[in-house]
What we know:
Layout: H1 3-17, H2 19-27, H3 32-35, E1 48-49, E2 73-76, E3 86-89, H4 91-107, E4 114-118, H5 122-127, E5 131-133, E6 136-140, H6 141-148, E7 156-157, E8 159-162, E9 165-168, H7 170-179, E10 187-191, H8 193-203, E11 217-221, E12 228-229, E13 232-233, H9 240-251, E14 258-262, E15 271-276, E16 281-285, E17 290-295, E18 308-315, E19 326-337, E20 350-356, H10 359-369
Parallel strand pairs: 1-19, 2-6, 4-7, 4-10, 10-11, 11-14
Antiparallel strand pairs: 2-3, 5-6, 8-9, 12-13, 14-15, 15-16, 16-20, 17-18, 18-19, 19-20
Helix pairs in contact: 1-2, 8-9
Amino acid sequence: MGFFNDFKTNLQGQYEECLAYKKLCENEGFNPYRDLKCEDDLYYVPFILSTSFKKSYGLFTKLLRGDIKDIYKWTISSSTSGDPSIVGRSKEDIDTLRRFVLEDEMRHKIDRDYECTFFPKAEDMKSYNRGIFLDKVCESYLGNIVDIYTYRDDTIHLLKLNNNKFEVDVQSFINYIQTHNGKNHRAALGGSTPLFFGTVIRLKENIKPVELGDKSFVHTGGGGWDGRKGNINIGTFIERWRFVEEVSNFLGIPQENFTDTYSFTENSFTMTGHYSKNYRDYLFHVPEYARVIVRDIKTLKPVKEGERGFIQVLNAYGTKSFAGASVLVDDIGEVVSYHRCPECGYEGMVIKIIGRVKGTEAKGCGATLGGDGVGNN
């Protein structure tokens, strides 16, 4: 894949097929046929705010690149505010997402003989609150991601659907960690960060720590570092270093065996990061089939290494049906390196995810970018 040429083709298609994005480009004096000549020009590509896909804004149909009848399904975010993002995807978009999730997983894959996760079975997650929206199926974006993961056939899913509510099977988790205690099995654990963390914090007051050993590992995903995800709220912000230290100490798994995956509904790929003791944080690798720009909160100019700002994601693939080629997320990132991971030697851009932008900063960003004006021009 040649990212720049493929991105240019994708952006030109989006420019022609999505009137809202074309008007945004015209307002900013940008034309992808004229102004996108080399990789450095990517910094000038107009972006759509991820919040523009919010249900309350009513713009998600205007951000399609074709007719509603041509989409395969609506994917919806796990909103904590009751105002989820809604993205219409084609079958090709879902297939591209599948390919990239599997590629990302293979890069960080660790063999395991046993597995438990604080996620439900994929079909349960996708079916939860599934419905028909504008004559198409609407289901969880995260559920679609989980459906792609290559779980073992005997994986223990600790989040169970009961009377249309998800409940954590805490006893199965206790049984799992005690069964493998002191045996140094290749035992995997993972899933939802707030559920995992909340369960460990409660259990450490009642049962003794275990020693799962250096062949075990922890892989989380789906966000929730603010302590909330969907209707889950553990009532506290989770610092990444604290999660790793608490879970590592309780389960007896080395900190270097922790990974986390970052994604969001308006995107077409995932990024996995490995934990660094030196940085006390996860270092996320930007894959070669994507680009990330971190923009200063006040000036929106690209930042230098070691600096923080809004995360902009450029997608060359997987956005055939919606205007997702250039999206600015309401997350703050920090550039660790533009060229190489200082810990593992990965060749490429490396970032840290600092967290969701504060309310006042989000309003300021909206004012700077014209708020929800994308659909009103």
